[in-house]
Amino acid sequence: MLPYIEVFGHKVSMYVIMCLSGIGLAILSGSSRSRITGVPREDVFHSYLLGVIGLLVGGKIMYIASLFPLILKNMRNIIKNPEMLLVFGTGGFVFYGGIIGGIAVVIIYCKKYKINTLAMLDTIAPSIPLAHAFGRLGCLSAGCCYGCEYHGPFSLFFPEGGAAPHGIGLFPSQPAEAAVNFVLFIVLTLIGRQKRKDGILLGIYVILYAVARFILEFFRGDAGRGIFFGLSFSQWLSILIIPVGFYLIVRPHLVKNRDKIDIKP
Q: Which pTM was predicted?
């Protein structure tokens, strides 16, 4: 774990460095794909910048929502000490909330400036796991989003004072998810080398990541994110968004068949 590095005598968060690196590379990747999807490069750039804002807001809102059962459980103490809400609000982010928030802002931007929304989302889809991979490496440096107790190969040991338990072996959940996201980036980039029907690339990403995240959640150790009927908050979200991915993939065929129907008065 390396939470900070010193730059000219000042401590700089490695988490912030990794996240900014991921966002920068994602913008470069998405901008290079604009020629394939036909979306203006400047609009891709603007969508990324606005999408980051939506990501931060959506991720924070979803994080608080995931802690709702814990908030209800401690409601009496919160009423007596309202400052406890700051503890819940200053925690982490939920990636799914960030994605929803980021996509929502991009959709609003596209609607306002009459840009093909699905083409824009397909343009940036491969770069989402790229930025996410760097974000997970940032989690590794900070010690958050840690894995369950694990004493097999590649187990991680974190020092005292961080978010992760110290002195015990933990499953390498952060590097594992980073690796999955790097693979997704490569797969989506290869599939997206030529123009596909609008929405298909985003649908493939949604399905593949949701399945991977559902599995990886079993190896997470930070159960404070909420558990419902034996599944984590993120696992329930994975289940809910998989049908969305399938719809995005079959949507072009549904639209094509609908256009073939001859409706007579």
A: 0.86
